[in-house]
């Protein structure tokens, strides 16, 4: 159940403190990088191939490192086999998540 949409693509739930963010993933890139936001979707490139969850693991690791949370607090909740994904980052408010990812506040 969503209680508020604080920015396009970043949402907070009431069950467990944290935020959801919509991501467009580009696997098999030259390097792991957060490329920015376009149309409310965070664009991320990872060097890992989309085989056996390797790209998803690299994505979660990159987001965890940039936000300063433990790797286990970042998970793919929708789009496991798709380029378009929704990630859950536990322990961060949506505004802090946007700041940590270098996105402008909404």
* Count of helical regions: 2
Q: Report the C-alpha radius of gyration, rounded.
A: 13 Å
And the CATH topology?
Conserved Hypothetical Protein Mth637, Chain: A
Number of domains: 1
Instruction: Indicate the low-confidence ranges by residue numbers.
Output: 1-8
The proportion of residues forming helix, as a percent range, comes to 10-25%
CATH class type: Alpha Beta
Give the CATH architecture: 2-Layer Sandwich
| Main sheet overview | 7 strands, mixed
Q: What pattern of helices and strands is seen along the backbone?
A: EEEEEHEEH
Number of E strands: 7
Arithmetic mean pLDDT? 88
For the record, what is the CATH homologous superfamily label? Answer: YggU-like
Tell me the distance between the termini: 21 Å
The proportion of residues in beta strands is 35-45%
Net shape: globular
Summing up helix and strand content along with how strands pair, one would put the structural category as alpha+beta
Question: Your description of this structure?
Answer:
This protein is an alpha+beta fold. The protein has one domain (2-100): Conserved Hypothetical Protein Mth637, Chain: A (2-Layer Sandwich). It contains 2 helices and 7 strands, in the order E-E-E-E-E-H-E-E-H. The chain has helices at 54-67, 94-100; strands at residues 2-7, 10-13, 18-26, 33-38, 41-45, 74-78, 84-90. Strands 1, 2, 3, 4, 5, 6 and 7 form a 7-stranded mixed beta sheet that branches. 27% of the residues are buried.
């Amino acid at each position: 159940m969503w209680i508020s949409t604080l920015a396009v693509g970043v949402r907070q739930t009431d069950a467990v403190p944290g935020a959801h963010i919509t991501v467009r993933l580009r696997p098999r890139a030259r390097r792991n990088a957060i490329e920015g936001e376009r149309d409310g979707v965070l664009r991320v490139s990872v060097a890992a191939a989309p085989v056996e969850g390797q790209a998803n693991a690299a994505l979660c690791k990159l987001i965890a490192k940039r936000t300063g949370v433990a790797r286990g607090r970042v998970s793919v909740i929708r789009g496991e086999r798709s380029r378009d994904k929704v990630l859950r980052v536990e322990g961060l408010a949506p505004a802090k998540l946007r700041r940590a990812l270098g996105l402008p506040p909404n």
